[in-house]
Design a protein that fits this description.
Blueprint (H helix, E strand, L loop, with lengths): L2 H24 L11 H11 L2 H21 L4 H45 L3 E5 L5 E4 L1 H7 L3 H4 L5 H4 L6 H12 L4 E8 L6 E13 L2 E10 L1 H45 L4 H31 L6 E4 H13 L6 E5 L6 E4 L3 H14 L5 E12 L2 E10 L6 H4 L19 H11 L3 E8 L2 E13 L5 H4 L3 E2 L1
Parallel strand pairs: 6-13, 7-9
Antiparallel strand pairs: 1-2, 1-5, 3-4, 4-5, 6-8, 9-10, 10-12, 11-12
Length: 474
C-alpha cells in the first residue's frame, strides 16, 4: 500500500534532474535549479529517514558536476548549495526518525492497552473478516470454547455458530444485516468445536472499520445461568400457582360448608338478636376468608397476564354492582346511579371487580345507613376521550395522610378495617391495566369526615352500541 512513495520519489528525482540538466547543459544558462532537489530530499527524509542523506549526496554531486562543466572549475556557491542540501537531509531525517519513534511507542502502548481491554471483556469476542474468517479472538473466547487462541483463529465463525438447532440460513440473515451496517443482537445456540457440545448464548454482530479494514465484531455471552434461573423461576411460579389453587379450593370448600350451616342456623333457629349476632360474626369471617381467596386468585390472574382485554360496557357493569349491593342484608344502603348510554372501554373482563371493590370499600368501612352516589361523564383532553367515573359515599372518610398510599397492598386507610387490604389494590391494578387511573379525594373539600370520592378515568372506546355489540363484555 505504501509502494507509491517509492514511485513518487523516483519521479520527483527524475523530473528535477532532467530540468536541471536541460536548463544548465543544453540551454547553457547558469540559472540555479537546485531548489527542485529539496522536494524529493524532504519527502525521503520524512518517509525513509536517513536514506535522504544518500539522495542529498547524489543530487549535491550532480549539482557540483554541472557547475564544473559550465565554469570549468568548482566555485564556492556550488559547494555551499550542495552542503545546504545535505544539512536539510540530516535535519529532516533526524526529526522524522524521532517523531516516528515516539509515534511507534505511543501506538505500541495504545495497542497494549487495547489488547488488555480486549482480553478483559467477560464475553467471547471474535474479530472477523467480511467472509467470516476469524482474524483474532480474546482470552474469554478461548476459555468459553475450550480452545487455544492459535487454534481458534484457524476456524471460521460458522464452526462456532452453525448447529442443527441454529441453522445457517437464519445466522446468514443476521450476518447480512450486520454487513449492511445494522447492529444485531439475538439469542442463539453456540457450539464448542472441540467437543461438539452446545450452550445458549446472547450474540451480537456489528460492522466497524479497524486499521482501515472493514471487519465484523461478533460477541457471544454464555446465558446458561440465566436460562437455568428462568426455568427455576417458571417452575417455582408453577408450583406456587398449584399450591394456591389447591389451598384455595380446599379452604373454600370448608368455608362453604361452614357458611351453609351458619346460614341455615340463622334462618331456622328461634334465637334472640344477641345469639344471632354471635352467629353472624363467624359467618362474616368465613365469607371474608372466601373473598380473600377469590381476591388472591384474581390478583394472580392479573399479575401473570392471564386476563385479556376486551370491550367492556361500563354502564352495564356499574349497574350490576348497584343491584348486588342494594340487596345487602341487615344494612340500609342507598346507591344512586343512572346508567349512561354508549359508555365503553377496552379493559379486562375483571373490570367489574374494580367497581365492586370501590363500592364494597365504602359499605364495609361504614356503620348503619350509608349512601353511595355513582356518576359517569365523558371528557376530552388533548384530542383523547375519557370516561370520568365518580363513586362517592357519606361514610367516615379517609384521613389525608393515608390517601396517597391507599391503593398499596394491605392499606385501607379507613377506621375499623376488617378486610384483607387487597380490594383497592386489585382495583388499581385492573384500572391501570386498562390504561386508566384512580385516585381518592374528600367528598366535601377540606373535610375528610364527610365521606370520600373515588375518581376513576378510563380511555373511551369509540363506536356505537350496534357497532360494538359483538365484542362487548357485560
Amino acid at each position: 500500500m505504501l509502494e507509491y512513495r517509492k514511485y513518487l520519489i523516483g519521479l520527483l528525482v527524475t523530473a528535477s534532474t532532467l530540468v536541471a540538466l536541460y536548463v544548465n547543459l543544453f540551454l547553457g544558462t547558469d540559472t540555479v535549479y537546485t531548489h527542485l532537489f529539496y522536494v524529493p530530499v524532504v519527502l525521503t527524509g520524512i518517509w525513509y529517514y536517513w536514506k535522504a542523506v544518500y539522495l542529498s549526496l547524489f543530487l549535491g554531486a550532480l549539482h557540483i558536476c554541472m557547475g564544473l562543466y559550465l565554469t570549468g572549475s568548482i566555485v564556492p556557491g556550488t559547494l555551499a548549495r550542495a552542503f545546504t542540501l545535505l544539512v536539510v537531509a540530516l535535519v529532516v531525517a533526524a526529526l522524522s526518525e524521532t517523531s516516528g519513534r515516539l509515534y511507534s511507542q505511543v501506538r505500541k502502548t495504545s495497542e497494549e492497552d487495547l489488547r488488555g481491554i480486549f482480553n478483559s471483556i467477560d464475553q467471547a469476542i471474535f474479530i472477523c473478516g467480511l467472509n467470516g474468517e476469524i482474524m483474532d479472538v480474546n482470552d474469554r473466547a478461548a476459555e468459553i470454547y475450550g480452545m487455544p487462541k492459535d487454534m481458534a483463529t484457524k476456524l471460521s465463525l460458522a464452526d462456532y455458530f452453525i448447529t442443527p438447532e441454529a441453522p445457517e440460513g437464519l445466522f446468514r440473515q443476521a450476518w447480512d444485516k450486520a454487513m449492511a451496517g445494522e447492529e444485531q443482537l439475538f439469542e442463539w445456540t453456540s457450539k464448542k468445536p472441540a467437543d461438539g457440545s452446545t450452550f445458549p448464548a446472547e450474540v451480537s454482530l456489528h460492522r466497524i472499520k479497524l486499521r482501515d479494514q472493514n471487519v465484523i465484531i461478533a460477541s457471544a455471552r454464555d446465558i446458561t445461568p440465566r436460562r437455568q434461573a428462568e426455568e427455576e423461576l417458571t417452575e417455582a411460579r408453577r408450583r406456587a400457582e398449584l399450591y394456591v389453587d389447591l389451598m384455595g379450593h380446599d379452604i373454600n370448600n370448608l368455608n362453604q360448608v361452614g357458611i351453609g350451616y351458619l346460614e341455615i342456623a340463622l334462618d331456622t333457629m328461634e334465637a334472640d338478636d344477641e345469639w344471632k349476632a354471635l352467629l353472624r360474626q363467624p359467618l362474616e369471617s368465613m365469607q371474608n376468608s372466601s373473598k380473600l381467596i377469590d381476591n388472591v386468585r384474581k390478583l394472580q390472574s392479573i399479575q401473570t397476564g392471564g386476563s385479556r382485554r376486551e370491550i367492556a360496557n361500563i354502564g352495564s357493569l356499574l349497574g350490576e354492582v348497584q343491584k348486588e349491593y342494594a340487596r345487602t342484608p341487615d344494612r340500609e344502603i342507598t346507591i344512586d346511579y343512572q346508567p349512561p348510554e354508549d359508555c365503553y372501554a377496552m379493559a379486562s373482563p375483571l373490570l367489574k371487580e374494580a367497581f365492586r371493590n370501590v363500592v364494597d370499600n365504602a359499605i364495609r368501612h361504614s356503620a348503619g345507613q350509608v349512601s353511595v352516589r355513582i356518576t359517569v361523564e365523558k371528557k376530552a383532553e388533548n384530542g383523547k376521550h375519557y370516561h370520568l367515573i365518580n363513586i362517592e359515599d357519606d361514610g367516615p372518610g379517609i384521613p389525608d395522610e393515608t390517601k396517597e398510599k391507599l391503593f398499596d397492598r394491605s392499606i385501607s386507610g379507613r377506621p375499623r378495617t376488617r378486610g384483607s387490604g387487597l380490594g383497592l389494590f386489585i382495583a388499581r391494578m385492573l384500572i391501570e391495566d386498562a390504561k386508566g387511573s384512580i385516585r381518592v379525594e374528600d367528598r366535601v373539600a377540606g373535610d375528610y369526615t364527610k365521606g370520600s370520592r373515588f375518581v376513576i378515568t378510563l380511555p373511551a372506546c369509540g363506536g356505537g352500541r350496534d357497532e360494538l355489540a359483538p365484542y362487548i363484555v357485560t
